[in-house]
Hints:
Layout: H1 7-18, H2 22-35, H3 43-64, E1 81-86, H4 92-99, E2 117-123, E3 126-132, H5 145-151, E4 154-160, H6 166-179, E5 182-185, E6 198-207, H7 214-224, E7 231-233, H8 242-253, E8 255-261, E9 273-276, H9 281-288, H10 292-295, E10 298-302, E11 310-312, E12 323-327
Parallel strand pairs: 1-3, 1-4, 4-6, 5-6, 6-7, 8-12
Antiparallel strand pairs: 2-3, 8-9, 10-11, 10-12
Helix pairs in contact: 1-2, 2-3
Amino acid sequence: MPANLSPEYIEAERRYRAAKSHEERLSCLEEMLSKIPKHKGTEKMQAGIRRKISQLKQQAEAQNRKRKGHSYKVNAEGAGQIVLVGAPNTGKSALLAAVTNAEPEVADYPFTTRAPMPGMMPYLDIRIQLVDLPAISSEHLEGWVADVIKAADGVLIFCDLASDDPVVQIDESVALLRDFGIELLPPTQEPVPELRGNQKKAIIAANKIDLPDTREMFDLVSEMQTSLLPILAVSCVSGQGLETLKHQVFELLKIMRVYSKQPGKPPDMNEPFTIHRGANLMEFAGVVHKDFVEQLKYGRVWGSGKFEGQIIKHDHILQDGDIVELHL
């Protein structure tokens, strides 16, 4: 039986998608429930709306209670730290197992991950730390998770393309983080002074693209999700899209690799230094050793110079892949 949704319901649903707070979303859902036609064709939709209303109310109660329990800190390692965030059973642990040396528990039941699980993801000749976190939802929320996210360099938001509504998974994850004072930004966007709270660059990983009919769902999610974050189709089982995901994580971190060279010796191409993009020679010297900042006279560069071994001054901007020789 067709739903025959009224214009009032459609408008309330549009405002729900665009809502920025729990109160707005709850108000829109209650209006949707009151405006939806009551017949057999909408019974499943009505049940879904009631479930979301219940979840939002439970979440509000959970946040009003004083948070107690464990506190975790994950020491950052490698070239950057990225946290994996999402609803239950969206594939966070599966990704960690697929691209790092970690061995998280992967299961079909929800809330498998109970504590932070770090792993090192190799990319090019560096390693990036991924941290799998407990699933976030209005039904189950670990109070310490927000603190771990705030300390990270970036966020991967997960959704399950084979689920009933991956758009809702994304929207609710983004909204839940916002309620904890965490605003997610596209990797190319600079911090926005008008936004309150902690601002983190983020990417959406749409998992299970290897399953039937999920390509159409991915196209729909890409069109409907309102966060403006870039979305990548991946499969933690087949490996589809994982190399692209690694590259996008590297781009999100806005880092570059610079190799050191001692005068008269070949460069060390095994362990590059990672520094922020746009860094100059003086900043690189400080990363190599804090005392080098005062002792540095000049440098030589192979890569971004006009010619190989060019003498460069303190303010020379380095590029990814440069080989630098410091002269003290």
